[in-house]
């Protein structure tokens, strides 16, 4: 039965290859990175790979997108300590992940796209690179990829693993396909005991609960210093809408429209928040770079003056809203902010990572939807590093009140630092587990 299920799945993905190519072409219009090295998606590479250098294994890490790549960077730092001389094979599924991953490469390292999950593409990928071990970050389980690693005797693990209730229910509905894939992994290292229980329920061999790698993040000291310098120069407290997702900027604008006479959408914009009247300086950083232009247009249509990070030289320009339109600078933005509204938590999207904000000493106000980071959210609230509100209106009120209360803001910023320090250690534990598995 399992063989038939995998065969039908493989046939479906093989037939879907033209659709994938069309999707990549469409996405490349706004994100040119999707047009790069498309044959790699199908396990076809421009040139043979040189023989592995002596002295260290080729460690393959798959980090599908931006968040996973940032978690992989934390793990990779420890892996290079535990495995001196290792070479890295880094794969991704998104253009933002690949762009971020380029920063992690050292001489001798390799970076390609994740192979589309057909039997042929997976086989060509594994035989091309022959990694000593594969590490999938957080949630990425692909049936043919797992089966191919088992055939080629490549140990494959799921690290920093998480599984929310919605995903668990989906995996159980497709148990005929997902359960063999989870069961064929060599090891699973979960973030929390709750994640571990859900993963075990779908057949995963959980052998450790190490915590969340993102607690081990070390924000750029240079970015933090620059951000805090710009914050001190601001005439008003800075409130950040961090990693906002589609629809959340509109929610935020709707609340502001109830409080101030914003121009109706479609009318000529007029400046409505000037330096004398605005209680806070707003900073908006969309989660996805392909939305930077879209968000600017939305804000300007509401009558807001917008200044983009890419236009700054020595300091932010005067504007109603500063728009963070750069990648890899979240420490800068959190350093600028007195408090952050957590993107992805006001729309039912599960929330974004709040740990990075806490590591930068930036208190967080989050909405009701944090199921992707449920335990981290609960721990942050218990530590006084975050507070939860019912909706965007309550979030804006809470964030503005905190930003205006200097002593309380400073107290919560200190609690943020203590919160992240308390939960560090997952990166070292995971790296040492990799070493043990390689030696087995």
Number of domains: 2
Helix percent band: 40-55%
Which overall shape is indicated by the principal axes computed on the Cα atoms?
A: globular
CATH-assigned fold name of the largest domain? Rossmann fold
- Judging by the overall fold, what is the CATH architecture of the largest domain? 3-Layer(aba) Sandwich
Fourth CATH level, the homologous superfamily of the largest domain = Glycogen Phosphorylase B
Structural class: alpha/beta
List the total number of helices: 18
Oligomer: single chain
Largest sheet: 7 strands, parallel
Mean pLDDT: 91
Name of the CATH first level of the largest domain: Alpha Beta
The proportion of strand residues reads 5-15%
- Count of DSSP strands: 14
For the biggest β-sheet, the strand order reads: 3-2-1-4-5-6-7
Keywords: Cell membrane, Glycosyltransferase, Lipopolysaccharide biosynthesis, Membrane, Transferase
Pathway: Bacterial outer membrane biogenesis; LPS core biosynthesis
Catalytic activity: lipid IVA (E. coli) + CMP-3-deoxy-beta-D-manno-octulosonate = alpha-Kdo-(2->6)-lipid IVA (E. coli) + CMP + H(+)
Main location: membrane
Q: Which helices and strands appear, and what pairs or packs with what?
A:
Layout: H1 2-15, H2 17-30, E1 58-62, H3 66-82, E2 87-92, H4 95-101, E3 110-113, H5 119-129, E4 133-137, H6 143-151, E5 156-161, H7 165-173, H8 175-183, E6 187-190, H9 193-201, E7 206-209, H10 221-233, E8 238-244, H11 248-259, E9 281-286, H12 292-301, E10 306-308, E11 321-323, H13 330-336, E12 339-342, H14 355-359, E13 364-366, H15 374-383, E14 386-388, H16 392-404, H17 406-422, H18 426-439
Parallel strand pairs: 1-2, 1-4, 2-3, 4-5, 5-6, 6-7, 8-9, 8-12, 9-11, 10-11, 12-13, 13-14
Helix pairs in contact: 3-4, 3-18, 5-6, 6-8, 7-8, 10-13
């Amino acid at each position: 039965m399992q063989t038939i299920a995998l065969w039908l799945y493989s046939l479906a993905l093989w037939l879907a290859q033209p659709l994938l190519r069309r999707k990549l072409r469409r996405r490349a219009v706004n994100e040119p990175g999707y047009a790069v090295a498309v044959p790699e998606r199908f396990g076809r590479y421009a040139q043979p790979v040189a023989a592995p250098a002596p002295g260290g294994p080729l460690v393959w890490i798959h980090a599908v997108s931006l968040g996973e790549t940032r978690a992989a960077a934390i793990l990779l730092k420890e892996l290079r300590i535990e495995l001196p001389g290792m070479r890295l094979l880094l794969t991704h599924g998104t253009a933002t992940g690949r762009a971020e991953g380029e920063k992690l490469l050292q001489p001798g390292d390799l970076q390609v796209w994740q192979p589309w999950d057909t039997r042929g593409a997976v086989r060509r990928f594994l035989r091309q690179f022959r990694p000593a071990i594969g590490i999938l970050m957080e949630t990425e389980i692909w049936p043919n990829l797992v089966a191919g690693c088992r055939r080629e005797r490549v140990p494959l693990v799921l690290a920093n693993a998480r599984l929310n209730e919605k995903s668990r229910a989906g995996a159980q509905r497709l148990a005929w396909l997902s359960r063999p894939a989870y069961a064929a992994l060599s090891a699973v290292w979960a973030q929390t005991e709750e994640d571990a229980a859900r993963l075990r329920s779908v057949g995963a061999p959980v052998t450790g609960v190490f915590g969340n790698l993102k607690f081990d993040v070390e924000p750029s000291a240079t970015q933090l210093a620059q951000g805090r310098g710009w914050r001190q120069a601001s005439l008003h407290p800075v409130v950040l809408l961090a990693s906002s997702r589609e629809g959340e900027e509109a929610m935020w604008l709707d609340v502001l429209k109830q409080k101030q006479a914003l121009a109706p959408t479609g009318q000529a914009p007029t400046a409505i928040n000037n330096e004398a009247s605005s209680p806070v300086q707003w900073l908006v950083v969309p989660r996805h770079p392909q939305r930077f232009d879209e968000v600017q247009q939305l804000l300007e249509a509401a009558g807001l003056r917008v200044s983009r990070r890419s236009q700054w030289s020595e300091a932010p320009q005067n504007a109603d809203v500063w728009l963070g339109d750069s990648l890899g600078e979240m420490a800068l933005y959190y350093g600028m902010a007195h408090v952050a509204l957590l993107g992805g938590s006001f729309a039912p999207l599960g929330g974004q990572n709040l740990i990075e904000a806490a590591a930068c000493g930036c208190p967080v106000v989050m909405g009701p939807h944090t199921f992707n980071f449920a335990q981290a959210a609960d721990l942050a609230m218990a530590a006084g590093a975050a507070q939860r509100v019912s909706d965007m209106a309550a979030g804006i009120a809470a964030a503005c009140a905190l930003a205006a209360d200097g002593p309380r803001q400073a107290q919560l910023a200190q609690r943020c630092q203590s919160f992240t320090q308390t939960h560090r250690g997952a990166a070292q534990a995971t790296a040492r587990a990799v070493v043990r598995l390689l030696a087995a």
